[in-house]
Design brief:
Order of helices and strands of chain A: EEEHEEHHHEHEE
Number of strands of chain A: 8
CATH topology of chain B: MetI-like fold
CATH architecture of chain B: Orthogonal Bundle
CATH superfamily of chain B: MetI-like
Strand content of chain A: 25-35%
Number of helices of chain A: 5
Number of domains of chain A: 1
Helix content of chain B: over 70%
Structural class of chain B: mainly alpha
CATH superfamily of chain A: P-loop containing nucleotide triphosphate hydrolases
Largest interface: A-B, 16 and 13 residues
Largest sheet of chain B: none
Shape of chain A: globular
Shape of chain B: globular
Distance between the termini of chain A: 23 Å
Number of strands of chain B: 0
Strand content of chain B: under 5%
Helix content of chain A: 25-40%
CATH topology of chain A: Rossmann fold
Order of helices and strands of chain B: HHHHHHHHHH
Oligomer: heterodimer
CATH class of chain B: Mainly Alpha
């Protein structure tokens, strides 16, 4: 499903973030959003998800999103497997969720409450959750924060292997670390 | 730095503290020297010992316990249900909040007398414990649901998670601590208010009736024994209900 943003204008008080901007995301495209902080990366993602109503402009409706927020937003006291099952599936998918996570996280961490996991591991749970969920488009807000270089590449491979043809839009300030991947870069 | 006390140490210390105060109690009753005014721990135990094998004792205990328990349970169920509705519909909340704040500030004695006038002493204990606990549970439910993490709710919305799942995994954990602390204080209050109501209304087969009779006959040791009974019942009731709630809330 093609996602169109047309004539988008939005400002916070005096600060103009978008002025009559337009953008089209092709179905199945992989997009990277780079911009200095404070230029509206998060705002753009939130407008797409319908969490912010822009001052003016239109966004394609009826798109099902899944996302990695700027913060992890994991359920407290809940294991990584159950974090996945919260957004899709039930008890019957438990095995599948385990298998899904096991290529990204050590096996013994899958059944611990997320608080007992390191920050980087929690980030990867949030990333896995966005890929596991049913959606047309995946939005990731700075998904690689807190990941070291090795984990970053492992995680990037995981994302590409599991996006299943869905449109992907990720924002990052680490563009140079992601040169090896087929990402189409958008500047704000 | 304080050393963490090990369990047997702590038990011993607790025992010594209890013995100390029992000693103070015994000594002061001996100082007063009039068991009719101030029964000693031994007098109290003796009175309890004499009451325990009688059918009247257990009838009164069963009568009060069942009525307090019924009042509390009704308050818990109705308070939660109303609280959830008030959380969902702000009109209901705007209507109910001032009324229930008023209910919280009205002296228990006024309720007791009104209920006696309106309903008689039969249902007195049930209605009084219900009235005392209901506002507590109501406000705890509303505030607990309100404390649910906004970011998690937003996340659930984006992922289009089923409502029932959001209720169970986001709202329930937010609600539980509020509900547990309201129950902990409500349980004690329902006993105190319920027994106070019984002393005034003297319904048949109730602890309050027995306390009233003890007062009439100046049987201070029996009054003390009944007080001890209420304390033990109230503690047992509180422990049971809280552990049940914790199990449900896990």
């Amino acid at each position: 499903m093609e996602i169109r943003i047309q004539n988008l204008s939005h400002s916070f008080g005096d600060k103009v973030i978008f002025r009559n901007d337009s953008l089209t995301l092709q179905d199945g495209g992989i997009y990277g959003l780079t911009a200095p902080s404070g230029r509206g990366k998060t705002t753009l993602l939130r407008i797409l998800m319908g969490l912010i109503v822009p001052d003016s402009g239109t966004v394609t409706a009826g798109v099902r999103y899944s996302t990695v927020f700027q913060t992890d937003r994991l359920l407290p006291g809940v294991t990584p497997v159950s974090q996945l099952l919260f957004v899709r599936g039930g008890k019957a998918e438990r095995e599948a969720a385990c298998a899904f996570l096991s290529s990204l996280l050590p096996a013994d961490s899958l059944h611990q409450p997320v608080e007992e996991l390191s920050g980087g591991m929690q980030r990867r749970v949030a990333i896995a959750r966005s890929l596991w969920a049913e959606s047309d488009c995946i939005l990731m807000d700075e998904p690689f924060t807190g990941l070291d270089a090795d984990t970053l590449h492992q995680t990037a491979e995981f994302i590409l292997a599991n996006r299943q043809g869905r449109t992907l839009l990720l924002s990052t300030h680490q563009k140079e670390l992601l040169q090896a991947y087929p990402i189409q870069w958008l500047e704000l | 730095m304080m050393k963490p006390a090990n369990p047997s140490h702590r038990f011993l210390r607790g025992l010594l503290v209890a013995l100390f105060w029992l000693g103070v109690w015994q000594a002061s009753s001996m100082l007063v020297g009039k068991p009719v005014l101030f029964a000693s721990p031994l007098d109290t135990l003796r009175a309890l010992w004499q009451m325990l094998p009688t059918a009247g004792f257990w009838q009164s205990v069963a009568g009060s316990l069942s009525r307090v328990a019924l009042g509390f349970t009704l308050a818990l169920l109705l308070g939660m249900a109303t609280g959830m509705l008030a959380f969902r519909f702000s009109v209901l909340r705007a209507l109910l909040a001032p009324l229930l704040t008023l209910v919280k500030t009205v002296p228990v004695a006024s309720f007791i007398i009104l209920i006696l006038v309106w309903f008689g002493s039969g249902e007195l204990t049930v209605i009084v414990s219900l009235l005392i606990v209901f506002p507590q549970i109501f406000f705890a439910t509303v505030n607990g649901l309100e404390s649910a993490d906004r970011e998690l709710l937003e996340m659930s919305r984006v992922f289009r998670v089923f409502r029932r799942r959001i209720a169970w995994q986001v709202y329930r954990p937010a609600l539980m601590p509020y509900l547990l602390s309201a129950c902990a204080s409500g349980l004690g209050m329902s006993w105190k208010a319920g027994i106070a109501a019984e002393v005034i209304g003297t319904p048949l087969h109730s602890i309050g009736e027995q306390m009233y009779l003890a007062k009439v006959y100046l049987a201070t040791s029996e009054l003390f024994a009944w007080t001890l009974t209420v304390i033990v019942l109230s503690l047992l009731f509180e422990k049971t209900v809280l552990s049940l709630l914790r199990r449900v809330g896990r």
